[in-house]
Amino acid sequence: MKCDQIFGGKVVVLGGDFRQILPVITEGGRVATVLASINSSVLWNSCKVLKLTENLRLRKASNNMDAGALAIFSKWLLDIEDGKINESNSGDVEIEIPDDLLINTSGNPIEAIVKEIYGERFAMRTDPKFFSERAILSPRNDDVDKINQFMLTKLPGEERRYISSDSIETSDTSGHDDMIYTQELLNSIQVSGLPSHVTLTSLK
Fold this sequence. Notes:
There is one protein chain. The protein has helices spanning about 30-35, 55-60, 65-80, 110-120, 130, 140-155, 185-190, and strands spanning about 160-165, 200-204. The protein is mainly α and about 200 residues long. The protein starts with about 30 loop residues before the first helix and ends with a strand. It comes from Camelina sativa.
């Protein structure tokens, strides 16, 4: 072990994609975010950047048509990430989404996306593989709750509601009555990684 070298002279492999989301700095602006990136670290000059050059998804394509479509889609994603789509000096970018990636509907958008991903008779399916190969992603927890609620209404069986514990131990308040939280406040708290106050399931 060489104490005068970074990491004691050991080789450390870091994996990541510089096109992905920047570090999240609480109440930090652009400067704080950039300074938190690894290429602003004192260790950066000691790093050697290696780039992946082979697209394994294209290599696993079942036929030439799939490979061609995947190649076009992959290039389009990389151009977006590299800022090559309709780039301008102002920094504003307008990205046109291809029609085959859009779900055009004038009705309920949640119903439309569920129908597109799972079909109209998903409630009758029992094959776990069918559901493991499909997912609806959303950046907002509110939208996730709405999608889950809609899909639950389509499942057969009796609805079961599970309620979380909504009281606080008075010994934790250290004798200050003004620190006792109301049930309404406790029930309204939604923290990432914890379930909501009310959880719904469907029992056949």
